[in-house]
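ugh finaly. both done.
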Amino acid sequence: MRTLDDLLAEGVSGRRVFLRADLNVPLDKSTRAITDDGRIRASLPTLQALRDAGARVVVAAHLGRPKGAPDPQYSLAPVAARLGELLGADVPLAADVAGEDARTRAGALGDGDVLLLENVRFEAAETSKDDAERGELADRFAALADVFVDDAFGAVHRKHASVYDVALRLPHVAGRLVATELGVLTRLTRDPERPYVVVLGGSKVSDKLAVIEALLPKVDRLLVGGGMCFTFLAAQGHGVGKSLLEADQVETCRRLLAEAGERIVLPLDVVCAPEFSAEVETTTVPVDQIPDDQMGLDVGPRTVEAFGRELGGARTVFWNGPMGVFELSTFQAGTRGVAEAVGAVDGLSVVGGGDSAAAVRQLGLDEAAYGHISTGGGASLEYLEGRQLPGLAVLAD
């Protein structure tokens, strides 16, 4: 796979570069202010390197899930403004994705200039299952530039026009973020330094089942928290009250527990409440004493201590998914405690993107404490499952 450094060695001054970035940041629903600019900041090393080399950069990205047509609430206008602030340069936003305004603005770029296209998902063809439809849009993307750089790791598991099809039409390389992500995930899958501990949270077992099946033969310990732990606890015969439960996955969890033995570590206690609310009164109980009329919304202090012991001796850690409903301060302690233990690991610690990365930032934890914070939760998990990611496969051609 060719990388950005290969492209820079060839020289890009005066050349137009189509850069697919992952700028899919969360916005406040009422003000449309960016609440976490981590993905924008992660795109800067590649973008600045291209600017410094004199490239004329056309940036493509998506935001949210618009329904294949322009929608003001998903406009990249706030992203263009923040990107300009971080770069210390004007970043105009094209009025369309790959139409007349995009063509005019791209053609007028000077060396080191940056143009951001409007949300690529405003075009239905971007996510189409039809190769010809995606190909027509990719043709328009390719007409805007001379070379393609993919730095959107969070989208490489998608066979989309701006990720996959444009790479079939232009010389292509992996950006620095994609190369870094790939290097870290390769270390996790090929020859991780041991003990190797994986921490999985989040709401549903079904969302993580494939990665659990793939990782179990490779890990020394798999620590399970979040809403998904209750299906495992039910598989052990415990009542889980009103907690999140996937009844159709109980037998699968029972099989996994039997196969894994002591390698799967479950919570010892949970923080319960009768309802999901910031003001509600909570109780912390052992996992075999969850009241019938309550739901578990975080792991308890004994669990944090036990998980911390497992993490304390680890040399490689991958963490994906919060331990509880960390968005509410009442249920943050479990995620905070485990996140701090992951950050203290003497070895490689990887935060697997998505809600885990959001938790690190929302809880005000030191990002520098972690070996790597991924920008792509779904892409990271699919890579660890051993699946072929279209955006990476096409770069390797």
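ok and the 2nd:
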Amino acid sequence: MMGVQKAEAQLVKEFNLESHVPADHLLREIDRFLDMD
């Protein structure tokens, strides 16, 4: 007989972009000039 699994899946993962992109990275330079609004 198969058992029933009762595990909740984590659908949202916390991610802080500021802590993953170095201060001197090229993307930060581009971000100053690019307006995504």
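summary for the 2nd one i guess: The radius of gyration is 20 Å.
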